[in-house]
């Protein structure tokens, strides 16, 4: 079964053709990163306009690369939530029009579920149930994936997402957008124990995260040192901050796995490309005898291949949209 997938939730316009949820036949991503670098982050209005300009050529290229026509496509999967509402509407309305004109079924697909599904492409043997840590610029969740379309939130951030904290800390140090990637690279040359940073705990919810205080602590460290004329070792600051964030993520994730008796762990989302997070969880899972899966780094960021993978399972579960499908800025993964 071939799925044409469309993704436009933030600043990448993407399309892909995916077969049976696991095999990527084509994948095209038009990134807006260079333009948004000028502003230090994504400007929603600009993102929406660029999606409108790019979506036709991107979808056409995905079909061409796959050497298929619309007549070969069995369903159209599109990200409809969550994300920037203007950006989402471009993809949703294009997919609705394509579905209406061709008669091909339309499958509404949740963005975070798609991030989880990136693992099905990278790890063909992976099947639910498993516990997944989803970490991105806008989300930090621990999710029990009971089946391909049945999920339960075990823990979540109470304030900032881990990716947002990385980006804001990086911006304070003058690093270009997207800051989390730049910070991860600089941290490789630093001492993770050079600075002591807090590990915020949510006392009434042991699996929940809170990154606002940690983000504020590193920003205050940078600003206070600048005001006193003290030059900080940037690599050490990056390494210490990265270590603190990863420590918070892995501690709660591993505690949830132990308490729930789950021995198959998965990570997903943009921050799942973070080198320390990947190596730390890989080592900890090996020590505990857990199975551990992570997506290829090329699939960690937003892409349509993951939408095509999850769209396949949504289609099999009977999740077919009508012509009144709308986009939503927020929506629970459940």
**Individual helix count:** 10
Q: Under the CATH scheme, which class of the largest domain? A: Alpha Beta
The general outline is globular
What is the H-and-E element order?
A: EEEHHEHEHEEEHHHHEHEH
Structural class: alpha/beta
**Total domain count:** 2
CATH architecture of the largest domain: 2-Layer Sandwich
Largest sheet at a glance? 5 strands, mixed
**How far is the N terminus from the C terminus?**
26 Å
Low-confidence stretches: none
* Topology-level CATH name of the largest domain: Nucleotidyltransferase, domain 5
Helix content: 40-55%
Tell me the radius of gyration: 20 Å
Q: Overall pLDDT, averaged?
A: 96
Count of beta strands:
10
CATH superfamily of the largest domain: ATPase, nucleotide binding domain
Q: Reading side by side through the largest sheet, how are the strands ordered?
A: 3-2-1-4-5
């Amino acid at each position: 079964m071939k799925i044409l997938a469309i993704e436009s939730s933030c600043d990448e316009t993407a399309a892909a053709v995916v077969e049976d949820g696991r095999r990527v036949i084509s994948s095209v991503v038009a990134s807006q990163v260079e333009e948004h670098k000028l502003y230090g982050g994504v400007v929603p209005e600009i993102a929406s306009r660029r999606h409108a300009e790019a979506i036709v050529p991107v979808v056409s290229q995905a079909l061409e690369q796959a050497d298929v026509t619309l007549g070969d496509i069995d369903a159209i999967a599109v990200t409809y939530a969550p994300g920037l509402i203007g950006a989402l509407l471009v993809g949703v309305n294009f997919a609705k029009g394509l579905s209406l004109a061709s008669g091909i079924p339309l499958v509404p697909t949740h963005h975070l579920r798609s991030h989880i599904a990136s693992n099905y492409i990278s790890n063909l043997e992976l099947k639910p149930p498993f516990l997944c840590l989803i970490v991105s610029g806008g989300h930090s969740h621990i999710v029990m994936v009971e089946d391909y379309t049945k999920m339960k939130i075990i823990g979540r951030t109470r304030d900032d997402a881990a990716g947002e904290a990385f980006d804001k800390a990086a911006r304070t140090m003058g690093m270009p957008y997207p800051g989390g990637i730049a910070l991860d690279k600089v941290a490789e040359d630093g001492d993770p124990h050079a600075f002591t940073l807090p590990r915020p705990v949510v006392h009434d919810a042991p699996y929940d995260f809170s990154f606002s205080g940690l983000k504020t602590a590193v920003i205050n460290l940078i600003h206070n040192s600048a005001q006193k004329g003290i030059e900080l070792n940037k690599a050490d600051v990056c390494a210490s901050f990265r270590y603190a964030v990863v420590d918070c993520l892995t501690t709660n994730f591993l505690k949830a796995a132990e308490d729930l008796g789950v021995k198959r762990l998965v990570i997903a989302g943009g921050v799942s490309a973070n080198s320390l997070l990947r190596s730390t969880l890989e080592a900890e899972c090996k020590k505990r005898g857990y199975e551990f899966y992570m997506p290829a780094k090329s699939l960690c960021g937003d892409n349509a291949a993951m939408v095509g993978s999850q769209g396949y399972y949504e289609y099999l579960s009977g999740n077919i949209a009508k012509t009144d499908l709308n986009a939503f800025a927020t929506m629970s993964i459940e």
